[in-house]
Please model this.
Amino acid sequence: MQTSLRTMVAGAALVVAATFTAPAANAQIGFVVQGSYGMDVEAVGVGAGVSFGLGSMTANSGISAEATFDYFFVDDPLKFWEINGNALYDIRSVRGLYVGAGINYANSDVGGDLDDLCDSAGADCSSSDIGINVLSGYKFGGGKGPFVQARFAIGGGDQLYLTGGFRF
Model:
């Protein structure tokens, strides 16, 4: 339980730290709030993160980056959360459409009595995996503001996520 809480806090700290480590030259830093639905865990999640440009050369090419932390409301006693870091590429021929790829770190853990039962049996009932994200989405208004996105995690969370939120 304490390890899971420490890991969640560390994940949130990584997202915040990404704000301060984004390239300074022409970096357009923004924030993201989002809600997601994980198809395999069959749960709704909420998340927050940062988006930032990678400098003037990539901004002119329609390339940006985004780091998010999402917590999913799964059935007790399971806990599921993830950290994502993705590069996004704007499709210039269709205003608002983008594709992307990145990495996914997913953590699932049982808590309460089941965690105690796992510990007493010498079993590890938690899992942490790193995977790859492939995604596509649409930004309404072409930039800041609402967006929808479909993301497939290969490894890590290993499922399809449907996400909607706001970039500001």
